[in-house]
């Protein structure tokens, strides 16, 4: 075997190994960020607000059935309010995207040279020289749709929203709020004495806050234990403030 044959065989083997590596290589990226954000928003508020309300009413010596009734009413109203807020936020985001998309379409048609210069400026920020990015610019100018998508993403930093994003956000936040809001109210269903029910609610809710905070930290890339402690602390602080305020008003 000649030297050239050996080098060719080596290149073939290397190419084959690279192809196998690429076939077996899978990148596991988390892509459900919007859903997780909605769940976090709904559950965190659902755990905290009814918890604080129940603690405040318990501090005012209200009976368990009244606390439960008020709590469930708050959960229903809160779920509707939070869901509507999520819907309006997602709808506004989609409307903003469509306005900017239309504006970019018009600029590509009316001032193409200016838009091309903006592509060059964007690519130069990544360390590319004119001889590197010129073919890219020319290719994009020949493909208006790709050009438009490039400008939306890299110039404006806007991602195309999902068509049903607004409705999905509303439902996710509302359901998450209900799930979180029911937790601190469960003890009042089974314990007639409001003070004892409040102590049970504190234990159940703080446990839920710690668990939720840990899961939230895991999905958001933060330290799970620290996230759990922070989430539980915020919930405990809110309920303590509501309870203290109720006691002050009762004494007055």
From TrEMBL:
It is found in: Vacuole membrane. One of its GO terms (molecular function) is iron ion transmembrane transporter activity. Keywords: Ion transport, Iron, Iron transport, Membrane, Metal-binding, Transmembrane, Transmembrane helix, Transport, Vacuole. It catalyses: Fe(2+)(in) = Fe(2+)(out). It is a multi-pass membrane protein. Pfam families: VIT1. One of its GO terms (biological process) is intracellular manganese ion homeostasis. The keyword tRNA processing does not apply. The chain crosses the membrane at residues 65-90, 170-191, 197-215, 227-246. It comes from the Eukaryota. InterPro entries: Ccc1_fam (IPR008217). Vacuolar Fe(2+) uptake transporter. The cytoplasmic metal binding domain (MBD) is located between transmembrane 2 (TM2) and transmembrane 3 (TM3). Homodimer. Belongs to the CCC1 family. PANTHER family: FE(2+)/MN(2+) TRANSPORTER PCL1. This is Vacuolar iron transporter. The lineage of its organism: Eukaryota, Viridiplantae, Streptophyta, Embryophyta, Tracheophyta. The gene is LOC103706800.
């Amino acid at each position: 075997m000649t030297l050239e044959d050996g080098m060719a065989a080596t290149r073939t083997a290397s190419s084959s190994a690279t192809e196998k590596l690429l076939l077996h290589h899978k990148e596991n990226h988390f892509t459900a960020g919007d859903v997780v954000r909605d769940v976090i928003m709904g559950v965190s508020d659902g755990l905290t607000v009814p918890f604080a309300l129940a603690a405040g009413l318990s501090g005012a010596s209200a009976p368990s059935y009244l606390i439960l009734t008020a709590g469930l009413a708050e959960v229903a109203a809160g779920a509707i309010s939070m869901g509507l807020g999520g819907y309006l936020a997602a709808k506004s985001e989609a409307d903003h995207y469509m306005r900017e998309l239309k504006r970019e379409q018009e600029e590509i048609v009316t001032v193409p040279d200016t838009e091309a210069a903006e592509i060059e400026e964007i690519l130069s920020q990544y360390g590319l020289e004119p001889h590197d990015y010129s073919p890219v610019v020319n290719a994009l100018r020949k493909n208006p749709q790709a050009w438009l998508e490039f400008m939306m993403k890299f110039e404006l930093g806007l991602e195309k929203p999902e068509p049903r994003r607004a409705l999905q956000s509303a439902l996710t936040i509302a359901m998450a709020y209900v799930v979180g809001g029911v937790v601190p109210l469960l003890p009042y269903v089974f314990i007639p004495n409001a003070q004892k029910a409040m102590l049970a609610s504190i234990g159940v809710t703080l446990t839920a806050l710690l668990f939720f905070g840990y899961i939230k930290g895991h999905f958001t890339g933060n330290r799970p234990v620290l996230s759990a402690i922070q989430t539980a602390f915020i919930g405990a602080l809110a309920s303590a403030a509501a309870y203290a305020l109720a006691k002050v008003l009762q004494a007055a």
